[in-house]
Amino acid sequence: MNCPFCRFEDSRVVDSRPVEEGTTIRRRRECPQCGQRFSTQEIALLNIIKRSGATEPFSREKVLVGVRKACQGRPVNEDDLVLLAQRVEENLRSSGQAEIEAQEVGMAILAPLRELDEVAYLRYASVYRNFASLEDFEGEIALLRALPSSNSPVATNSSNTDSQQYNRVKN
Fold it and tell me: Where is the ATP-cone domain (predicted)?
């Protein structure tokens, strides 16, 4: 790291602290040349690969915009949506990959949205999975009825994810 004061090409880390829920590291550095101290921040990047092949940084705000549309008119508060977006980001980061397909982001949204509100889930899934007919809706509703959500008192085998269960019932 170049010193911002004398432009010396090296610096020594004096202290490191995680900030912003551990996604950023703040480092206190000292220049061995001039002795000045300065701070840097390192951010773990998570890039999304879009269908076009372009990449862009992950944005919780984009997740919130999409989920807000699905939850419009539903009894869901903003705090729940923020927590959902945080869960989605944590889930994606836990994969250990620096670049993730946009398709995976949509899949990561489905399970927590279903737990939050099944009607909003159905709205989101209809756009995300490009429902083209009434049969698509009926099939998804049948899956919702066959696979209780984790907040349902009838939920079973919580170790399986919704997408694994969805694929099993669908096939």
Answer: 46-136
